[in-house]
User: Which sequence fits this backbone?
């Protein structure tokens, strides 16, 4: 069973986000009260390049299984500390195709836009963590493990314990790329 294990938000642009009892997802905008809420980009580096870009990073989801893997490498990471809004368990987020819809709780729906591209802030949080969230496949291609990004299609409240239902795209599946 795929579930939400934690939800987090931050009003300010901080790397980590404090856990909350619940978050409210707003269609076309993101997480109510979160610094990344909006139709256009809110990540400071992206705003500096072009503030009119669409916000494909409204909601960040991260699989809790990554914390287990990182713990095996000597890191201690808890939900929200890597900046995610929704922490999950029991779903292969990184294996989902672009355009997958995730139904969270009773009514919220997000559409997967791509992979989170980890940045230097991860190493400022814990030295060496960025390298630990990157890997290479057998062909030498880079694997980004720091979660996925999405946009909100339908409003709804999301809390720990909520079920996640996966709706794969009806069209040809496109692998996730960094957004």
Assistant:
């Amino acid at each position: 069973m795929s579930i939400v294990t934690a939800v987090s938000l931050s009003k300010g642009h901080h790397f980590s986000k404090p856990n909350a009892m619940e978050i409210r997802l707003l269609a076309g905008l993101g997480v109510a009260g979160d610094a990344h809420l909006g139709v256009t980009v809110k990540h400071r580096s992206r705003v500096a390049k072009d503030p009119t870009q669409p916000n494909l990073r409204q909601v960040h989801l991260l699989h809790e299984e990554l914390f287990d893997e990182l713990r095996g490498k000597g890191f201690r990471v808890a939900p929200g500390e890597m900046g995610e809004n929704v922490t999950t368990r029991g779903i292969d987020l990184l294996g989902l195709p672009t355009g997958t819809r995730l139904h969270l709780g009773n009514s919220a729906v997000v559409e997967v836009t791509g992979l989170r591209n980890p940045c230097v802030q991860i190493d400022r949080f814990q030295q060496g963590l960025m390298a630990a969230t990157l890997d290479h496949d057998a062909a030498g291609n880079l694997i980004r493990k720091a979660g996925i990004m999405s946009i909100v299609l339908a409003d709804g409240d999301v809390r720990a314990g909520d079920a996640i239902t996966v709706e794969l795209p009806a069209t040809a599946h496109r692998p996730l790329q960094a957004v």
About this structure: The CA atoms of residues 14 and 83 lie 8 Å apart. The domain at 3-167 is CATH 2.40.33.20 (M1 Pyruvate Kinase; Domain 3). Helices lie at 44-49, 65-72, 121-125, 129-132. The chain has a mean pLDDT of 96.
